[in-house]
Amino acid sequence: MTLRYINHFNHLLDDLEQHSLKRTLKICDSASAPIMTIDGQAMLTFCSNDYLGLANHPELAKAISEGLLLFGSGSGASHMISGHHRPHDDLEKALAKTQASFIPEVRALFFSTGYMANLAAITAITSSLGSNQVMSIYSEELNHASLIDGVRLASKQNQANVQVFPHQDLQALEQLLAKDTNEFKLIVTDGVFSMDGDLAQVTALLKLAHQYDALILVDDAHGFGVLGQHGFGILEHAGIQNTNEAAARIIYIGTLGKAAGISGAFVAGHKTLVEWILQKGRPYIYTTASPPAIAHGLLKSLELISDDSYRTSLNHNIQYWKKTLRLKKWGLMPSDTAIQPIMIGRTEDALQVAQQLYKKNIWVPAIRPPTVPANTARLRITFSANHTTEQIDQLIHALMEIEDGL
Ligand SMILES: Cc1ncc(COP(=O)(O)O)c(C=O)c1O
């Protein structure tokens, strides 16, 4: 018996470890909340995307349990076969309503995860082209991995010519668009940048899309539930109107495992675009539909999201943190959202700070390459509506103490 392959991978894993790039799993013995039990120890956490504190909300657990009693534990099949249950359909209609003021003739399609929604939407759109055509894709530099993978897949299928434009640099994007004589163009961007917390300039991007006759896909994984008066996300926050000439160009992705507190995602757009994604999105077609009980729970989650008291508490926490924290060496990144990263720089340094916080029973993840560019390792601090000001003070004191000691 040869262990050649095992040795090959062991060698690579050792290499990751030596470069401080080997990741490890931590086991959580309690529900998502500001205080969690990790390996038997109570920890104060600032790392989840449970921005509204709904992931352990009793109303959601109750709604999922009711869904389980009504529809059983599994969907039994893919959506196109017999897996598309009534709660899936009700949820899609409710999700479409959340975007109806911003996108004309909107329809929504529910997915098991945001990763799959992004892959499906991008590859379905590019698969609409004939064998002698390609889509010019303009991809934001700091897009999430699932958008990058969708774009790569489209490009490997020879259906896309990809150009990455620098973060927030719409002048550079315009220069690229102005030179492009291709008939088919797609701009792809995060709504809230997941490792930085800043917002895409949606209004200006939509204007460019219109001027240069492009489609625009906005992945609002960290905005849905959080941004806008009703929590409908970045299009609401930016004041986009469904009467805007450009609004039918939008493909909006919202995810439901972050602020919505459960799991899943949706694509919303003009009904024709969404019908095409349903027909051709392989990650939609060739997978088992998620349990109907999840969709049943998500309908309740949409009700809770419409109550702005969760957003008010979250925004209070963000403002309190920004006005109270005083750092000497490290910089707080420019963000008004629940994602409040502190830039450290070297991977080893970011890991060291995260470890020191951990010793003080505070859990903040260090984010390092390849998730972020080289030399931009950071602490990714995230807030929830459920954090108290005392808990935020505890984090601030610990950070200031560690910074002084380094
Ligand atoms: C910007 C962004 N898009 C998409 C996803 C993927 O969503 P999901 O976790 O539902 O697969 C994430 C995070 O997980 C994300 O941060």
Instruction: Report the bound ligands by name, code or SMILES.
Output: pyridoxal-5'-phosphate
Radius of gyration: 22 Å
CATH superfamily of the largest domain: Type I PLP-dependent aspartate aminotransferase-like (Major domain)
How would a textbook summarize the main sheet?
A: 7 strands, mixed
Counting copies of identical and different chains, the oligomeric state is: single chain
| CATH hierarchy class name of the largest domain | Alpha Beta
Helix count? 15
Terminal CA distance: 50 Å
Shape: globular
Could you explain the architecture of this structure?
The protein is α/β, with parallel strands linked by helices and 406 residues long. It folds into 2 domains: 19-48 and 308-405, Aspartate Aminotransferase, domain 1 (Alpha-Beta Complex), CATH 3.90.1150.10; 58-306, Type I PLP-dependent aspartate aminotransferase-like (Major domain) (Aspartate Aminotransferase, domain 2, 3-Layer(aba) Sandwich). 42% of the residues lie in helices and 17% in strands. It has helices at 4-18, 58-71, 79-83, 86-99, 114-126, 145-156, 170-179, 202-211, 234-237, 271-280, 282-285, 292-305, 309-324, 347-359, 389-405; strands at 35-38, 41-45, 106-111, 135-140, 160-165, 185-190, 215-219, 250-255, 265-270, 331-332, 339-345, 362-363, 366-367, 377-382. The strands form 3 sheets. Strands 3-9-8-7-6-4-5 form a 7-stranded mixed beta sheet, with helices on both faces. Helix 4 packs parallel to helix 12 (292-305) and helix 13 (309-324) runs parallel beside helix 15. The termini are far apart. It binds pyridoxal-5'-phosphate. Pyridoxal-5'-phosphate is lined by residues 113-115, 118, 144, 146, 190, 194, 219, 221-222, 255, 257, 265. GO terms for molecular function: 8-amino-7-oxononanoate synthase activity; pyridoxal phosphate binding. Residues 43-399 form the Aminotransferase class I/classII large domain. It comes from Polynucleobacter cosmopolitanus. Keywords: Pyridoxal phosphate, Transferase.
